[in-house]
Fold:
Amino acid sequence: MLELKNKTTITIILLLSIVILLIAFFIQYILGHAPCNLCLIERIPYLLAIIIIPVGLFNKKFEKIVFLFLGLIFLAGTILSFYHFGIEQGFFSESLVCNASLENANLSKDDLLKELQKNQISCKDVSFKIVGLSLATINTIISLLLSVITIKLFLNHEKNK
Structure:
C-alpha cells in the first residue's frame, strides 16, 4: 500500500513538472511575456525531474537514489528561485546571470551598441503575476514543497519496504 503511495506521489511530481513547463511555455510563447535569464534557468529542475523520474518508476533498484537526486534538484531550484525573488524585491542586486547577453568582453563599438539596443529582460522586473504573486515567488513555494516531499520519500524509503 505504501509503495503505491510513493509511486503515486512521484507520478504526480512528474505530471506537475510537465504542467509547470507547459505553463511557462504558454506564458512565453502564447501570452508573449519574455522570460529573463533566471526564469529560463529555473526551468531546468523540472526538465531534470521529467528525465529522472521515469528511471525510478521503471527500475525499482534506483528508486531511492532518484528520490535523493530529486530532493537535491528541487532544493537547488528553491535556492535559485528564492534568489530571483530576492532580486525582484530588492534584497539582492542583479548578478551577471541577469546580463548574460554580453558574453564577449572584446566587443567592437558597433557590436556593443547593438547589444545595448536589444530589449534585455531584467531579472528584477516582474512582467507576469498570478493571484498577485510573481512567477519566481510561486516557483519558490512549489520548489520548496517538492524538495521537502522528495527528501521525505528518500528518508522514509527503507521504512516503506
